[in-house]
Specification:
Layout (H helix, E strand, L loop, with lengths): L5 E6 L7 H11 L3 E6 L9 H8 L15 H8 L2 E7 L1 H9 L5 H8 L4 E5 L3 H5 L1 H12 L3 E2 L3 E4 L5 E5 L3 H14 L11 E6 L4 E2 L5 E2 L6 H12 L3 E6 L11 E5 L3 H11 L5 E4 L6 E3 L22 E3 L3 H10 L8 E8 L7 H12 L3 E6 L10 E8 L4 E8 H17 L4
Parallel strand pairs: 1-2, 1-3, 3-4, 4-5, 8-11, 8-13, 11-12, 13-16, 16-17
Antiparallel strand pairs: 6-7, 9-10, 14-15, 17-18, 18-19
Amino acid sequence: MTERKRIIVGVAGGIAAYKAATLVRQLTEAGHSVRVVPTESALRFIGAATFEALSGNPVHTGVWDDVHEVPHVRIGQEADLVVVAPATADLLARAVAGRADDLLTATLLTARCPVLFAPAMHTEMWFHPATVDNVATLRRRGAVVLEPASGRLTGADTGAGRLPEAEEISTLAQLLLDRGDALPYDLAGVRVLVSAGGTRETIDPVRFIGNRSSGKQGFAMARVMAQRGADVTLIAGNTAGLIDPAGVDVVHIGSAAQLSDAVSKHAPDAHVLVMAAAVADFRPTQVEANKIKKSADPNAAAPIIELTRTDDVLAGAVRARTDGQLPNMRAIVGFAAETGDANGDVLFHARAKLQRKGCDLLVVNAVGENRAFEVDNNDGWLLAADGAESALEHGSKTLMASRIVDAIVAFLQSGGG
């Protein structure tokens, strides 16, 4: 059960204000106490009654309502988290200037909790030097300013500046609550390549060899690293139902061979490789052009499918770096889903895999029913090539991703890469 926190959702006056209603619903359904503080402009797009119904709390915009409760000071002081979605160019500028001419900006001045801005504006506004400077200032002061998504904007325009989906904002809001501090912006200038999801190896036009990977952990890695400033490319296998992370370039693939080709293409430019994908170890030697039919004879033998090993993409990347083919690569992180057996426990097999693969860090998950695959929470261990080992405590996959990224940043800063 999520611990009940007090969250302020600020809503600025942009067309994306309608998405804030979904965000409020998600945060309240997660068990939090939510109060919406819109600007006057925001109420031109969506009415106060909507926010009051969804949050169960009154909605005001000015500092003159309920003056005896001193809301322009109290709301910010008592908050565990402030989320502004959408955060328009005007709202960002007013926050930087320290304006306090309405209830939302006054709340931002008095809040001492983590503050999360989710920008939404036209591409030209997002890239204007004034906005760039304002975002940099807010980040330097400790606020978290999300990278916006790219896509359809108002009218026929498309580009960067689209408000991330409510699910992504609420996920990152929960991460800040779980961490208890701001998300560092410490990967600016770092190019990262992340793989996620399972591969599918075709048997015939109907069937394939696959695995239970949902891609959630790899997507969480890409999302967290992008929001910490990295330039992220995500190679996504079969990840049905997942939202492409905002601020991330996504390359969709299907098979292990396609994943290998994509890694080979993008790895030379990357500083960090995170291989979270569950890559099939084997593929059918021959792919049937037609569906394999089941015989009408119940005594007929089942067809035999001959298998061939697929390329070890992680080990191949390590070899390529050793051979000087990846001159920019500073850290290679592998993932291992393990079970114990008669020869040893999960960590025994993980240590052997780390030595065999030769990567810098290895994230290990013990798998089983409702563990690791197809669930929202995760735990495990982080093993390093220098012999260091640490437990990754149970929590959301986004929180686990944040802890892993903390370790990657420490590895980079130590000169380990």
